[in-house]
Write a structure and sequence with these properties.
heterodimer; A: 319 residues; alpha/beta; Rossmann fold; Ubiquitin-like (UB roll); 6-stranded antiparallel beta sheet; 5-stranded parallel beta sheet; 34% strand; B: Rossmann fold; 2 domains; 29% strand; iron-sulfur (chain B); 2Fe-2S (chain B); iron (chain B); metal ion binding (chain B); 2 iron, 2 sulfur cluster binding (chain B)
Amino acid sequence: MSSASLNVEIRRIRDLAPGIREFSLSRTDGDDFPVYSGGSHIVLSLPLGERTHRNPYSLLGDPTDRKTWRVAVRKQEDSRGGSRWLHEQAREGMRIDIAAPVNLFALNRLGRRHILVAGGIGITPILSQARELARLGADFEVHYAYRAPEYGVFVDELEALAPGRIHHYVQSRREQIEFSSLLAGRPLGTHFYICGPGGMVAASMNAGKALGWPESHLHSEQFLAPTGGEPFDVKLTASGKAFTVPSDLSLLEAIEQQGVDAPYLCRGGACGQCELEVVDASGELIHHDLYLSAEERASGKKIMPCVSRLKGGCLTLNL
Amino acid sequence: MSTPAIKSQPIYAELEWDRTGTHHILFVSAEDAALAQRLLSNPPGGTLTVVHLRPADDSRSAWSQNLPDTALYLETHTLAEALEVLRDAFYVAQMGTRIYLAGAEDAIWQASQLADTFGVSRDEIRHAQLGTKARPVFCVHCRTITRGVHTNIVSCSGCGRSLFVRDHFSRRLGAYMGFQIDAEVPGEVPAAEVVYP
């Protein structure tokens, strides 16, 4: 039950940095892509052997470029296949399906100033947001942290967009972003956006809250890769299926393999679309998502099958 | 002659400090001794600026008497002056600021519109209706806002049409909607009643 899917051809593959590749995509039917908003992502369907693997990636190019969409992919060390396939198997000329863009990381256009922060490959949605802000003539600045100079992908594009407003923090030079000073003394109406590793995002949110920033001005995006884990049993009450989720499949993927149409959008624990009702769980729910509140987790009534699992026993879902 | 309350009509909660904020700006344009006592006797952490709109006479006000020593108190005597002072306060304000607007709807929603121009979001601002219930009324025909309306029907200060005052409220305009009551049968205007004292 994905949103409308498009068939695209991989037109160009570029190695940007060790373990980071950029893919340029064009529609195979020759039509223009729709316009998207800065911060949007698409879901790529990747043909991994007999099963399809779906991964979300932020669109990073110019939102008004209707011919080419670009994504950048970092090879995950603990990849279950998606990013590894893109790094090792994907070739120019191959065709894949993608789902139309969804934006869970939109700009607030009423903001008077925008602080964009990227950690590593988190630069991808930040780049499309920066393009949109530059086009709008908005007041913005970018703070970009990366491991070593050679990992600073897209710095040229960023510098061209906002000369003098791009700040670099290179870990190998022991530079890091001090969020309490970055966020202090900012004028009313400032918005903060961050995409990066979990620890970095959490540190920035904590600094913002301590300085009195309201939630409506603190925006973050993280996509989680399903981690795999111990196998567990599942029963679906509405569709009458019973099966085992193997260790290398997510719950959502296992449900799809049974031919059951489950809702999803981001497949990365961020959007909340795939939420399922837990009827019974004879084991511990292992929540990995970024969506459910602490109360919802404690209730034991909900699970996000794209990234979360059960530890031991059997999980009964209303699906 | 009553219309049912509708979703856009503001519902004002009891005014409380938002203690997650680190700076606080309070605009107050009406007396409420109990509220003043309750808020000022237990002020929030961080800076507090009070912009007070009050008559230029010697009357005593609970809003100026129980202030914490650290509060910045700014007295004004006209709404225009109060809005200028507020504009300056918003201009220098930092993220972490919470804004509290207490008084007649006409005054607090004009102040709210001003805050909107600074990019303030709804979770940074609180409104409380104090004193008169008089309504600002936006004429849907000529787009003039008639202020201080106590009656359910009012003559538009812009085009003179007899307007029925609805409960439908625009936060953006800071006014209730008014439309011509005798559009179908010109001249057939019921007697106006005071319903917003």
